[in-house]
C-alpha cells in the first residue's frame, strides 16, 4: 500500500512539474531522490507565500525581536498607516506594551479614529499593561459596533470594570460571553468572578454547563481546553 502511495505521489509531482514547465532538475529530484516528492510539494505546489509565512513564523519564535527590527526598518522606509500597525502588532507579540500602544495611537492619528482592528489591539495592550481606564475609554468608541457585542472585546471591558470596582457593570458585560460551546477560558473567568461575588448558584450553573459540554467535544478541543476543564471540575468539587 505504501509503495503505491509513493508511486501516485511521484506521478502527481511529475505531472505538476510538466504542466507548470518547471526546470528539468525537478524531474531528477522527484524520481531519484528520497523524499524528493515531498520537497517538491512543499516548495512548488503549496503557495510560495504560505511557505514564506511559515518560515517567518519560525524565525519569529527563535528570534522574536528580529521581526520588530525588520518592521522598524520598513517603517523608516515608508511611514504608512499599515506599517505602523504591523510594527505595533509585533511589539504586542513580544509583550512590549508601551511601544505597541505608541504605534497604535500614531496609526489612529493619521487614519480612522474608530478603526475597529486598531482599537481592539489597543484594548488588548492597555489591558495587559493594566491601564484599565484606557481599556474602558477605548471600548466607548466601538461599543455600538456589531462586532463588539458578545465578543472578547466586551469581555475585556468587563474585566477592566471589575478592576476599578464597578462590579455590576462588569457583570453585565462579562456574562455576555456565556455562550454554549465557546469562550471556554473566558467563561471560567466569569464563573470565578461570580464566586468572588458570592453568587454561588449562578457560578455553579456556568460551570455545570461547561462540564456537560466537555463530554460532547471533539478530541482536538478537549486537548486545547484541557486545563480549563480540569479547573472547572476542581471548582465544582469545591463548591
> How do the helices and strands follow one another from N- to C-terminus?
HHHHHHHHHHHHHHH
Proportion of beta-strand residues: under 5%
Number of strands: 0
For the record, what is the CATH homologous superfamily label of the largest domain? Tetratricopeptide repeat domain
Count structural domains: 3
| Gyration radius over CA | 25 Å
Shape: flat
The chain-level mean pLDDT equals 84
Number of helices: 15
Q: Describe the largest sheet.
A: none
End-to-end separation in angstroms reads: 55 Å
Structural category: mainly alpha
Specify the CATH class of the largest domain.
Mainly Alpha
Q: What oligomeric state best describes the polypeptide chains here? A: single chain
Descriptive terms for the model:
flat; 239 residues; Serine Threonine Protein Phosphatase 5, Tetratricopeptide repeat; mainly alpha; 0% strand; 3 domains
Task: Write up this protein.
There is one protein chain. The chain has helices at residues 2-19, 25-32, 36-45, 48-62, 64-77, 81-93, 97-109, 116-128, 132-142, 152-163, 167-174, 184-196, 200-214, 219-224, 226-238. The mean pLDDT is 84. The termini are far apart. The longest helix has 18 residues, at 2-19. It has three domains: 1-53, no CATH class; 65-170, Serine Threonine Protein Phosphatase 5, Tetratricopeptide repeat, CATH 1.25.40; 181-239, no CATH class. Helix 5 packs antiparallel against helix 6 (81-93) and helix 13 packs across helix 15. Helices cover 76% and strands 0% of the residues. The protein is built from 15 helices and no strands. It is mainly α.
